[in-house]
Amino acid sequence: MLNIFKKIPLSARIGVIIIIINVLVSIFAPIIAPYSETELVGDSWDVMSKKNLLGTDHLGRDILTRLIYGARHTILLALSVTALSFSLGIVFGFLAAVMGGWVNQVISRIVDALMAFPTLIFALVCLSVLGTSIPVLVCVCAVPAATSVYRLARALSMDINVMDYVQVAKIRGEKLLWIMSREILPNTLSPLAAEFGLRFCFVFLFISSLSFLGLGLQPPTADWGGMVRENAAAISYGIYIPLIPAMAIAQLTVAINLVVDWFLHESAGRVPEEI
To answer: Is the pTM of this model over 0.70?
Structure first.
């Protein structure tokens, strides 16, 4: 594993390290955080000190603690949405390509209808009507994301579906699920894996945007987009607090893009230049 890590470009190594740090912080948040998630430890927007390393928020809660718990909530939610969207997109994309005919037409027209709605407006309407519970939030964010995954999975599987080995499997009488999982899926893993990383970034930023608008994770649950919204007024007073969660969002997004960029180069059989 160490040898593989040494062979990848410096930019990808930096991305991997940042992602690992974020994952570890998410897993061990209750152990790492100096205070509880909702504990009041000072006055509003206190400056950095030994007691509060990054200062306090608008209610006097420790920013570092909120940032650590926000990593857990935001990353886990984005990962859940991405996993659900990929499950839906891949299953229906493969199904449409392999079965073809009216199945392909019906699924594709439903996807076209969903893609006709602006993603943010679709989410705002659904969340306003259905509420902002975590299950609803995951489903509402996953459905629009699944449409792009469906398009990619369908396009990839349609090319593979006409290959000789797939036709032989059909002649042998293999079932639909076997063909999708044993013949098509292994041959589409590289582009789908790269798309997973990119889609995670989009979902991550989308959830942060919803939280900033007040329709994401609800207080007192900490999440990075919500932390920016809660402390946005501090900017008027020249206080840096809102920039901290904004930088947290940026660093994870950049790290994932660095790794995905390297993975795309590897999949294409090229080696990216060192930086």
So the answer is: yes
